[in-house]
Amino acid sequence: MMLFEAGVSSPFASSGLENQIFQYIDLHQNQFIESLKEWVAVESDSVQPRLRQEVTRMVELTADRLQSLGATVELVKLGSQKLPDGQSLLLPPLILAELGKDPQKPTVCFYGHVDVQPAKKEDGWKTDPFTLTEIDGNLYGRGATDDKGPVLAWINAVEAFRALKIGMPVNLKFIIEGMEEAGSLGLEELIKAENQHFFSNVDYIVISDNLWISIRKPALTYGTRGNTCFFVEVQCGERDLHSGTFGGIIHEPMTDLIALLGSLVDTSGRILIPGIYDDVASLTEEEKKLYESIEFDLEEYKNNSGVQNFLYDTKEGILMHLWRYPSLSIHGIEGAFHEPGTKTVIPARVIGKFSIRQVPHMNISIVEHQVIHYLEDVFSKRNSPNKLKVSMSMSAMPWVADVNDPLYTAARRAIKTVFGEDPDMIRDGGTIPVARTFQNITRKSVMMLPIGAADAGEHSQNEKISRHNYIQGTKLFAVFFLEIGKLHRQLQEASNMKTTN
Amino acid sequence: MMLFEAGVSSPFASSGLENQIFQYIDLHQNQFIESLKEWVAVESDSVQPRLRQEVTRMVELTADRLQSLGATVELVKLGSQKLPDGQSLLLPPLILAELGKDPQKPTVCFYGHVDVQPAKKEDGWKTDPFTLTEIDGNLYGRGATDDKGPVLAWINAVEAFRALKIGMPVNLKFIIEGMEEAGSLGLEELIKAENQHFFSNVDYIVISDNLWISIRKPALTYGTRGNTCFFVEVQCGERDLHSGTFGGIIHEPMTDLIALLGSLVDTSGRILIPGIYDDVASLTEEEKKLYESIEFDLEEYKNNSGVQNFLYDTKEGILMHLWRYPSLSIHGIEGAFHEPGTKTVIPARVIGKFSIRQVPHMNISIVEHQVIHYLEDVFSKRNSPNKLKVSMSMSAMPWVADVNDPLYTAARRAIKTVFGEDPDMIRDGGTIPVARTFQNITRKSVMMLPIGAADAGEHSQNEKISRHNYIQGTKLFAVFFLEIGKLHRQLQEASNMKTTN
User: Fold this and answer.
1) What is the band of A400 on the pLDDT scale with cuts at 50, 70, 90?
2) CA of A85: which chain B residue's CA is closest?
3) Does the pLDDT value for residue A14 go beyond 60?
4) Is residue A81 predicted with pLDDT exceeding 90?
């Protein structure tokens, strides 16, 4: 197993083939950026039901691009979702595509998504979120890093091979969805249904949908937190009331809701729901060491966040609370007054939104039960006549992989070739539920290979990808094809030698 | 003082003059409704800065109507307001109008406003809020009752006198503003400036900008609560963050804000800010009796609210907590996620909005100090590195009048004539700061004469005025002109007799 040792530098010097590919990519960078601009211009926001058509249009555009690469593309219908108001809304189709079927080559399946988080200029964007705009080497636009840029970088890498008439060292498969930002509805069922079909001959699964931990140093991701999102609805009647006409004589739903939300987490960030920490994996000495070797600039991370003081002062404290301990965030309230200015309203029906980031080995069903039970208990002590409804709107399991897998070795070598240094081996505090889902269902080797820097601002205002990361990311994917192809050949040869010995 | 005793029935039977006026008003009701439809169609929302032009347009439309009645109209410029973001926004002009100058007649000044609360169809309106729509005898539309309907009813009443060529029994003055829903900016300064000019020859001031306490029984209002609105801003940085990337390692502004808002009021509706009840007027036996005589249908009031259970079970408990005790309502949060669905965001800057309804003899400056001091104290105990800013965005004093004034007697008689019964003598839990301002500055007799029923839904979805109330309200104002004219003559005659004796 010497070949797959962690931390080993690439045994392959930058070859003529690689140089040829790098040259092509450098020469065509403006064309690649133009493609990204076209994609960012599509407001494929999967969160807001009214924009569903744009998501579908984005998926179809992506399918066209894959077809023009020579891939066979299937658009899979996923059915409908049920909205909170009871209405039914069609899900966008999902892409299954295939490029190459050589049984001598490994088959790598790439996962990405082409839907985006909501964005509005007035939320504080310096540029229009749906017009990719280059300023000082950065490409600003919703989806630039999450996740249109990485999907296109993968496509660009394949295009380089095609344009240069270099044979692909791997068979490729693509699974591209349009509902990632809204909980990947329908995806898990599809993976289950396709496990014995589309996935049967897949060797490796690569996901590029997260960030490095630093602004400049690449990273490989071997784990993510999960998530459970909750709605807490309190209602007193059907219509909003005037605080002059009813203030002082009714149990106001906002007062109940604020008390419920206020019972969730203490000033140190500790979650107050009884039992919530019971199943959290205990910290081993081996895991502790992993954190020590990570190059992590606390000040840089603070600067990226715009926040002056974190809850923890050390690298280890920060990383552990992002990666291996759960957290609870309150996102907002639906139904209350939210505009600038003053409105003396008593909202009749308010819905608090919060989420808990899951870690190994928390169980989603247990967490759901704990949250509902706790909030119902807090509410019952208020003696309020209002109606309470607590529901889990979305959930995703956490995921952890084995960092000694060949997939990780190939990626580490490619990073060394393109970026000149070894990557940080990191986890992600966010949720890529698909990683866990792929591993659980297909039992294939799964890896996350990000190209977005820590300051990309995904889910935030002024999301961006740097021109450098987008172009080097394209090179990284191309070299990764070469490395995993080589490694696969070596593995086969080793296996053949064993057989002949 | 026998003439002005409370509860006395009108000594004047419905006269030929009154019948002539009633007939005219009944015959022209559709025309009056058409006028209201035109006014409701103007989205004169004074809360949202982007709609300021519409408010100004509405004020100008009103000025045109008053001019066509024969009034001399002045549009007074009020300068600008400073928005929270530091920008300056022009205030709409204010109308000062005058109709008649006969020194033998009393001069009645009418106050109303033509701006409205924000409204959007998607907030839960059954009809378009800016298209007046009649359904089952009710006229639905934003401003139907608050306050375009009452302003037009007053104008309609004058039109009846003009059309029938009946001499007006009173001189009229009008003060109509366009910033009531946004705190009547500039109004107090104007009243002060005009006290020795426009108001010098005014005898009585009538305000019609509130509701009856019942669906069917008219009321006269002799007091209102005040209000103080607060903004509580908590900020951690300049841009929103992703809860996957920062959840668990920062002090989230929403967590701080929820804790601050959660410290304001307990489950029984009692305000937790130390000292807030210190200056509340103590309850006398005389005041207690006032509540006992009011016809108040608790079940009807509950049905109007859509709320099943109030904090108090008795009529007195309800009315006292609406009128003579302060209340605190939390209206909402600006800057957090407020749309349907899920967004795993950590908002960087959130502003909680709440208000405290003031009662005699609470002092606004003291309340402001108590609130700011308390919230800063609660925040300091959290050891949060975030920035807190508490500010009072708007304030209005409470107001109470003497119910034995001639103005109230005339109104009581007019109500008896038009509606056939004595009014409830009530206060209003809401804020008509102008009532207090008029009384404080001009020292004139001030009265509130509502025509909106308890289920009008002002500030709420599906605001309405019934056709009956709108048309009977027009008659009420016409008869009120006759009654106050007569009463004034009798007062003068009594005064002359005294002089000649």
Assistant:
1) confident
2) B340
3) no
4) yes
Domain boundaries, given as residue ranges, for chain A: 2-224+397-500, 227-280+325-395
Q: Least CA distance to B213: which residue of chain A?
A: A245
Number of CB atoms found within 10 A of residue A361's CB:
12
Classify B140 as helix, strand or coil.
Answer: strand
Q: Which among B237, B311, B342 is the nearest to A306, CB-wise?
A: B237
Tokens at A216, concatenated: 């400049």
Which chain B residues are within 8 Å of A393, Cβ to Cβ? 342
pLDDT of residue B7: 31
pLDDT at A13 over 50: no
Q: Which two tokens stand for residue A476?
A: 């990284």
Binary contact (A459, B429; C-beta < 8 A): no
Report which DSSP code applies to A394.
E
CATH hierarchy code of domain A227-280+325-395: 3.30.70.360
Annotation marks residue B115 as catalytic: yes
Cα atoms in the Cβ-side hemisphere of radius 13 Å centred on B404: 4
CB pair distance less than 8 Å for A244 and B428: yes
Question: What length does chain B have?
Answer: 501
Contacts of B129 in chain A (CB under 8 A): none
Identify the CATH number of the domain defined by range B227-280+325-396: 3.30.70.360
Intervals of chain B under pLDDT 50: 1-13
Mean pLDDT of all residues belonging to chain A: 92
Q: Stretch A476-486: mean pLDDT, rounded?
A: 96
pLDDT at A467: 97
The answer to whether the CB of A304 falls within 8 A of the CB of A460 is: no
CATH topology of domain A2-224+397-500: Aminopeptidase (3.40.630)
Same fold, A2-224+397-500 and A227-280+325-395: no
| Coil vs helix vs strand at B183 | coil
Name the architecture of domain B12-224+397-500: 3-Layer(aba) Sandwich (3.40)
What is the per-residue pLDDT across A135-169, written as a single tens digit (0 to 9) for each?
A: 999 999 999 999 999 999 999 999 999 999 999 99
